[in-house]
Amino acid sequence: xxxxxxxxxxxxxxxxxxxxxxxxxxxxxxxxxxxxxxxxxxxxxxxxxxxxxxxxxxxxxxxxxxxxxxxxxxxxxxxxxxxxxxxxxxxxxxxxxxxxxxxxxxxxxxxxxxxxxxxxxxxxxxxxxxxxxxxxxxxxxxxxxxxxxxxxxxxxxxxxxxxxxxxxxxxxxxxxxxxxxxxxxxxxxxxxxxxxxxxxxxxxxxxxxxxxxxxxxxxxxxxxxxxxxxxxxxxxxxxxxxxxxxxxxxxxxxxxxxxxxxxxxxxxxxxxxxxxxxxxxxxxxxxxxxxxxxxxxxxxxxxxxxxxxxxxxxxxxxxxxxxxxxxxxxxxxxxxxxxxxxxxxxxxxxxxxxxxxxxxxxxxxxxxxxxxxxxxxxxxxxxxxxxxxxxxxxxxxxxxxxxxxxxxxxxxxxxxxxxxxxxxxxxxxxxxxxxxxxxxxxxxxxxxxxxxxxxxxxxxxxxxxxxxxxxxxxxxxxxxxxxxxxxxxxxxxxxxxxxxxxxxxxxxxxxxxxxxxxxxxxxxxxxxxxxxxxxxxxxxxxxxxxxxxxxxxxxxxxxxxxxxxxxxxxxxxxxxxxxxxxxxxxxxxxxxxxxxxxxxxxxxxxxxxxxxxxxxxxxxxxxxxxxxxxxxxxxxxxxxxxxxxxxxxxxxxxxxxxxxxxxxxxxxxxxxxxxxxxxxxxxxxxxxxxxxxxxxxxxxxxxxxxxxxxxxxxxxxxxxxxxxxxxxxxxxxxxxxxxxxxxxxxxxxxxxxxxxxxxxxxxxxxxxxxxxxxxxxxxxxxxxxxxxxxxxxxxxxxxxxxxxxxxxxxxxxxxxxxxxxxxxxxxxxxxxxxxxxxxxxxxxxxxxxxxxxxxxxxxxxxxxxxxxxxxxxxxxxxxxxxxxxxxxxxxxxxxxxxxxx
Length: 901
Hints:
Blueprint (H helix, E strand, L loop, with lengths): L3 H13 L7 H12 L6 H14 L9 E3 L7 H4 L6 H12 L4 H17 L9 E8 L6 H15 L3 E5 L4 H16 L27 E2 L9 H7 L10 E5 L3 H14 L12 E6 L17 H11 L3 E8 L5 H4 L4 H4 L9 E4 L6 E2 L1 H7 L1 H4 E3 L22 H19 L7 E6 L4 H25 L4 H4 L3 H13 L7 H12 L3 E5 L18 E6 L12 E6 L6 H6 L5 E2 L8 E4 L1 H26 L4 H10 L3 H9 L7 E4 L5 E3 L2 E2 L3 H21 L3 E2 L7 E8 H10 L11 H9 L8 E7 L10 E2 L6 E2 L1 E4 L9 E2 L18 H14 L15 H4 L6 E10 L10 E7 L10 E4 L2 H16 L6
Parallel strand pairs: 2-7, 2-8, 3-5, 3-6, 4-5, 6-7, 10-16, 11-13, 11-14, 12-13, 14-16, 22-27, 25-27
Antiparallel strand pairs: 1-8, 9-15, 17-29, 18-28, 19-26, 20-21, 21-22, 23-24, 27-28
Helix pairs in contact: 1-2, 2-3, 5-7, 6-7, 7-8, 10-11, 14-22, 16-19, 16-20, 22-23, 25-26, 26-27
């Protein structure tokens, strides 16, 4: 039986969802009116009002879209004949789930735009469409394509296939969401003797019933499909298949369609078909090294599409560095490449309450990220399948304590029925995952026992218990500003810890994340797994994450970020434990993907095509890594063409031998001498934040400096050869004059190193040597970053800086009053930069690995502005030996099918 609070929330929520921007006064007025029917106390009333204020302050903008040039719109003319039965039901479900009116309106617009880019299902004759939708990890892609399925069914699509993840738990989770948002019935009961149960949209209207040939506990099966006895051509309502991305499943579906649904005398199906490929960059793309060898799944997807006279393929992905753009050996082959999205590419912008990579790794990293530094003796980053775990790293035990304390704070905030989850992803081996699960369970039981026995004592007496004292230490370190005092936290600690269970999640375990079975009370779980937790699987109410995987691959690393999503009412409690190096990679990838989204926006304004965006992706500097890794097993020399316009490159990997250090310092001395001879004014460190600046310096001085610099072969992007060729192609025009900054701290401390070899007193910046540094390689910090954030503003006037920031706010729908809280990314300043910026760094290296750097070590960074000319790409030859050393773990995971689960 629902409470008055729940009934009041539902009643007010239904009204507010129809209003685009309800004010706080309007929200309170509605609550007051309905409170007479569903009485609640004043404190609960104010809590509900604040909750609606936050919810309806969420907005969402429509992302960019690119189409082929001869695209002919059809949807506007067809709207008059479309009855939005399925979409109307889905909108009611979104209202019930608490989506704001603005978000529902934006979702309506964006799904309409994508639907209009599909083929017209009423159009006779053969046709096919290929498209891609680029979303964000855990941002609501499933909600988006569920809405698209509803609209496609309303428009006349008869067959809908959703290819979900490569693991059963993700396929089952996707089926549950399709049941809830489109089918309206519990598919697990369809081929059983149990009574039919309506779920989700089915609770609003059961007049029409889509047919589902799969269910939430079982993938597609030929015998089960045949037992339904319904040929697709005789369907009055659309049919939906939610299948695993598995070669055997795809073969069974293709064979069954040929046997039961092809037109008589033909081997093709006439019914219009929509195929949604979720996580399209995973297993769908051509992974084989041979030029003409398509991977089995890739070829099966194409075979499935070719079964239909009328079909549309849409790949959904959050990582647009997919092989679909970069695998072909030549640009000419790219457009004709199997599943290339030649007809359209759409970018989804998340709502403003999205807890995503930009916020986690760029804006709020200091408050959210905790570095794991104590794992190597017990749980090394690289370990064998037979690793025996003797105990847990202290950082992991602290992460478990943090989860308990955070859940207690959520209870104090009134989140009594909400799901709460913790993620532990520290090994790809199921044997190690099982040991982790058992060790965590044992430690959790100790904490639960202490709280059961002593948790109800006074704070003074309770603190005599060592476990409770440790929980207090964690609260003091993490949550003193969460608005809940320790005394109140202590009151909730037993209730917070008691229901928590530890579950192993992989293909060999019996554990599962049964959030649906705990919808009324909330599931409280610590999920231990590997690859099964790394793609698509949603952990509801995720608060704490412990991540120890070692990967440099963009798609793998970003998809492992299950901590992205929506954290209404508890985003300030979220914490993530990971190695510092992994944080650096995440920040870099987040920046790179945001750059591509910016390119999509600007290319949409310029009327560019999907092919042109594909070329842009392929010329992005980061494709050096992605392409080389894809080609690594081919044994061929890997040459990658890169465009350096609108990019930032720096020497984060250096040769540490004394001769190279001294030669590179001499190159900087010569640069300073060359600039002195030009007679240009040097703006002092007092005038310029960050050092000494010379503007309008000649390109010849920069070229001479780069030619003299001895680059480490592992620093691929800073190879002087390609960079100098790129500059020389523009040295008479947009790269003729440079801004050059000699970086220097404004105020030295007692331990500062002051260098005067350049003719000016440089207060050397301090950087640590990364943990992977050795006698032949110096890595600048574990994050492999040299320049400080904000450095790319150097040389710009106030007007240009304000213009760049204003453009950034507008592109994300941010209001001017939010500008004080925005941590602007450096890339936005390249858009307004007229001259490239060279930054010369003299670094004092702090090293704990036994290597001594008594003299400053030279490094450099270059910020290249956007090019106004035709993008000229330069060739890089990739050092495959270095890549194989760095990507060995990634290759092993591919060869073993991801996790060993």
